[in-house]
Fold:
Amino acid sequence: MNAVMAPRHERTTAEWQAADAAHFLHPFTDFQSLAKKGARIITRADNIYLWDSDGHKILDAMSGLWCVNVGYGQQALVDAATRQLKELPFYNAFFQTATPPAIELAELLSEVTPPQFKHVFFSGSGSEGNDTIVRMVRRYWDILGQPERQVIVSRKNAYHGSTMAGASLGGMSGMHAQGGLPIPGIVHIEQPHWFEVGRPQGLSRDEFGRVAAGWLEQKILEVGPEKVAAFIGEPVQGAGGVIVPPETYWPEVQRICDRYGILLVSDEVICGFGRTGNWWGCETMGTRPDLMTFAKGVTSGYVPLGGVMVGDRVADVLIGQGGEFTHGYTYSGHPVACAVALALVGEAQTCGLMGALQLVKDKASGTPFPSELEVGMVCRGHCFGNGLIMRAVGDRMIIAPPLVIARAQIDEMAALIRRCLDLTLADVRGRGWM
Ligand SMILES: *Cc1c(COP(=O)(O)O)cnc(C)c1O
Structure:
């Protein structure tokens, strides 16, 4: 600690940035380039707005990181956390103990999830939830006397978190390139991205949906059906760029999973808790998953919490025949996190609120910009400069605003987006890129 440093609340933006660069390694960040540029310091928030350390007001069209679904400054959540912190800030659920908030939340989750879900396994995050998925899926087949069923099929450009198992399940090649991933027993098929994959082949969305689901069957046959344990997917790929699959995709995936008896896992970390217009993305897409991962929206990001909803097919085996499941986290069922989730679960709203805009050089032909121009980043820069947080995944601009966003605020957001797109267009023309 530097004794001459000003007290926290009196630091200038430059001082915050210097201290940040000196000590704080940010997630998914090129440390050197951030240190040169200086981080944007966010100091407070209310409803759907953030303020930075220079006093700029910013419309947060990304709900923090897909999580602050009820918006900032919800007093009920603050009160729930405060009450629980005073009464019982922590106790674990190991060694045959439990706390009331964890039990009540488990009960409530089984009410708001599809009927096959009556049990939950808590974790501290979505990544941990997906680690639990890998352990649980393999354990399930072990108990059933089919230990050779190890392989989990996932998709390229999927995001399932950043732990060893999460990053392995995910299909981000940049992540696999670091740390020797994926771990054994995880394979990937192509994603159902119509604009990039199906459209250039002249397929309609519906035709492409069936073709893309067919890749799962091909992979199952290639690996050997007796070795395939599960298929995992996000109902709508979030971090990959809000890739909404064709309507024909998920029902066909469900049929294929049923045909080969393999478990279907729905990663609901983004889609859960109302993001797609129903409580769960699987309801919007028409599937009956055996397991669901959740996190983010469950506490609106106010405190960390995640978990796995365990459907009857798996629960009956784990509970009825399994003996000890040697897996769990110190914070599984953390009472404060569960108390916040309980305060929230009753009031989540539902409306389909995630979207993407693919920036292309020529709208008629759909010709993309050369990727090295990073047009998405140019657009993101204009957004930041004009008080809007919109994320860029390549040249795909994505939003997922808090579900509490009001009608007039949606108009305000749309006007900001339009202005930033116009600025981007002028900028890109000015650079001679189109
Ligand atoms: C964010 C995310 C995760 C990882 O959750 P963390 O809480 O960051 O570990 C997993 N799956 C999906 C679909 C996500 O969007």
